[in-house]
Amino acid sequence: xxxxxxxxxxxxxxxxxxxxxxxxxxxxxxxxxxxxxxxxxxxxxxxxxxxxxxxxxxxxxxxxxxxxxxxxxxxxxxxxxxxxxxxxxxxxxxxxxxxxxxxxxxxxxxxxxxxxxxxxxx
Length: 122
Known about the structure:
Mean pLDDT: 84
Shape: globular
Number of helices: 3
Distance between the termini: 7 Å
Strand order of the largest sheet: 2-1-5-4-3
Largest sheet: 5 strands, antiparallel
CATH architecture: 2-Layer Sandwich
Strand content: 15-25%
Number of strands: 5
Order of helices and strands: HEEHEEEH
Number of domains: 1
Low-confidence stretches: 112-122
């Protein structure tokens, strides 16, 4: 099991990632490598609520990610992970499918079956 800091460090090293943050569903910021984490953490928490609402209303079992397109091509992605949310800003010149696949692999390697793990572990 990785700590939030270790997980964020791994995600931040993915080719195409310009920065990231990890937030609990309750809005608690667990780690970040992105500028203005307060603004992004609010966006991430609101997005997590929207994803849950869509899943419940439409009957989807889960949501892999939500994306926000920007004119600057620095798109932003929100990945629901059990009781956590990962926000990722992309570099404008990256190949998005490879970046997303790398992030999915990292998410798949962390265990988040416990809702409140001491030491901010995810």
